[in-house]
Amino acid sequence: MDGAMAAEAGTDWAPRRMPAGLGGSVVLHVGLLAALFLVTPLRALVVPEPPAISVDLIPVSAVEPEPQPTAPPQLAMQAPAEVAEPTAPAKAPAPPPAAPGAPSLDADGTFHATKLYAATMLKQPNMASVRRSLRTLASSEKVMQLCNIEALEQIRLAARQYAPDTMVSYAMADPVQTGLMLTAMGGAFRSRRLWYGVSFECVAAPGLDGVTSFSFKLGEAIPRDQWEAHFLNAEDEDE
Known about the structure:
single chain; 7 strands; disordered N terminus
């Protein structure tokens, strides 16, 4: 029937074929696309976005300034201190003029009696009680008391800044007595309720009614904290 229809139409019918060259080209391109798809994943075809950049703002105060070159340290120049001119040491006040009959003074500070007073003083009316006391003493004690009387008067005349009223021959050291001679190297005398050191050498008269020789040296003030240990009082106990 098909053949009759074709004969009736006057034409030959047959299926159309693509040209051999064109079909091979299509097949080749399709195979290349498939291979490209299989070899290269799709993710490789996606262009990644650039990573976000984090920016931290730093305050200006936190930025340390670059060190600037510094000038070399300058030596501090000081004006030379003015040198004070040495001043003369303060002079001690001049002692009062020596009283008539005062002892002479040697260069080493030793006074030598030029006139003796114990015998004359004992004859005065106000010394009556002293005369009575001397009669009751042994000879060695009489020598000491006579020398004490002489010492008070000699000091008063030699150093008129003092007003001596009491003499203790044995205050700071025991005196040495040889016959009529008494040597006291640790004596003390009181003046205006203060005590001062003194050393002296005294020779009593043979009749024990005065002295025949007397010399002495004045010492320093005795510290008050030493008075009690040496039985020194600011004033007499019966006052």
